[in-house]
Structure formats: C-alpha cells, structure tokens
Amino acid sequence: MRLGLAILSKMFYYALHVIHVSAKKEKARNYARIPRPKGNYCRQESCSSTPPKRTRETHCLIIKPMLPKQKRLSGRDITQLFKGGKTTGTPFFVARYAKEGGKGVRCAVIAPKTIAKTAVLRNSLRRKWYASIDQALSTISPASGIYAFVLKKEAITLTPINRIQAITSFFSKNQ
C-alpha cells in the first residue's frame, strides 16, 4: 500500500511540476540556429578580398629527425653533469661535458627563458638543435661522454648549416 502511494505521489509530483515554456522560448528552441550570410558581412565591400588558393607545396611539413632517446640525457644525468663537469663557451652556447667510457655520446639541449619567453619557441629551438646534433653526430664520431648545451640568444639566428658547423667544431676541439 505504501509502495503504491509512493509511486502515485511521484506521478503527481511530476504531473504537477511540468515546466512551462513561453511561446517565444519554444519558437527559439525550434529555430536555435539563425542563418547568417556567407563571408564576413561586417566588412566593407572595398576591403573584402578572396584569400589566395592554397597549394600542396605551400603547406608541406618538413619533418626533421630528432635525437633518439638513447642519445639524450635524463634529468638526473644533467644534475650530475652540472655538479661536476667541464665547461666551455662558444658564441652560441655554453657546453657542459664529462667524459665517460663505453656508453657513447648522450646530449641535452637547454633553452632558458632568457632566450624566448614562450615555451613553444623554446621547445622548437630545442628540437632544431637536437636535429642538428643528430646530423653532426652522423658525420663525426666524438669521444664517448655526456654533453649539455645551454643555448644563448645568438643561437636563435643560426641557420641549420651554421648550427651543425658550431656543433662539429665544438666536438672536434673537445676530443
């Protein structure tokens, strides 16, 4: 009996509490999307110009290989390197390095906030330098060790060829 009353009371509750929507809102609900004219209708006719057609060549991405993970340094290695490693400076970066036997060459690129304020620019710089290091390591074989390159402001303006030359000259001097 009580169960029946509970069900009936819920039915009456929902029956009595019907949401009443005004006719305007109901009309707006049926026609929620208002069609607008195509293009930028706020612009003057003299200012409107059609954008140039995009070709496949203009939007082609150039994918550069980044340094493999086995050849990159971890955070722990970088802190050890900064505690006890040798330092040399070039016009484009400051290099910290330590010679290790048998593990091969492992590198890290550090782009501080003094170079670029946004993380996007710093990360793109790091990727470019990692790609240049990978190309430089494919041409020469330096002594095995760990290397950290802290970039300077002048490193932004370098072309890929100049980056590779700076890295190869550093490795040739410090063998």
Plain-language structure description:
By secondary structure, the chain is an alpha+beta fold. It has a domain at 69-173: Ribosomal Protein S5, domain 2, CATH 3.30.230.10. It is 38% helix and 14% strand. The chain contains five helices and four strands. Strands 1-2-4-3 form a four-stranded mixed sheet, with helices on both faces. Strand 1 (86-89) and strand 2 form a beta hairpin. Helix 4 crosses helix 5. The longest helix has 21 residues, at 119-139. The N and C termini lie far apart (94 Å). 17% of the residues are buried. The model has no long low-confidence stretch (mean pLDDT 76).
Short characterization:
The protein has five helices and four strands.
Order of helices and strands: HHHEEEHEH
Q: Supply Rg.
A: 32 Å
**Strand numbers in spatial order across the main sheet:** 1-2-4-3
Secondary-structure arrangement, i.e. CATH architecture of the domain at 69-173:
2-Layer Sandwich
At the first level of CATH, the class of the domain at 69-173 is: Alpha Beta
Q: Whole-number average pLDDT?
A: 76
Q: In total, how many beta strands?
A: 4
Shape: globular
Are there runs of 5+ residues with pLDDT below 50, and where? none
SS strand fraction: 5-15%
Within the CATH hierarchy, at the fold level, what is the topology of the domain at 69-173? Ribosomal Protein S5, domain 2
Total helix count? 5
Q: Helical content, roughly?
A: 25-40%
Query: What structural category arises from helix and sheet content?
Result: alpha+beta
> Between the first and last Cα atoms, what is the distance in angstroms?
94 Å
